[in-house]
């Protein structure tokens, strides 16, 4: 069993209860999702990808809930990955409920923790919301891209440098959706390797706002 299988089995078997909540509300069928990892991983699933020149089984990574750092409450999502290959993405993904047959204006925000400020880009923060969960690094935005300024796109997200500050730093994006043919979107958050060094980051205080347009 590889690292991905172990983490998925642990998430499914080890934690009862819902990590996040999806709250319908308003006359415009607005929906909201909020997560601070106080109840563990819950419905979050961990995954990773790396370029074709490296077997994924050789890429070391970990995703779990930790009380070492927290932006809200007492726990956060811990994301660790190695930098040996100067490549690779590690993330966790969670479903978000919406009403199909409608288009939306979506806002997503979250807090990412870095050990210190650095002039070197050691990792990028990655966030993605779309009709399908990511399966490869190419499913996330390219470096420096944030969908807030792009208008209607197939999915929303960002890939922006971490280590911009000592401690917590907020990342956010907006997404103008096409008319959706699904009632479930998938929120993914994690880190992409840039520098050849192992690194730990934490993610917390996630929120998704959804307004019909």
TrEMBL record:
Family matches, as InterPro entries: Galactose-bd-like_sf, TAT_signal
Top-level taxon: Archaea
Annotated protein name in UniProt: Twin-arginine translocation signal domain-containing protein
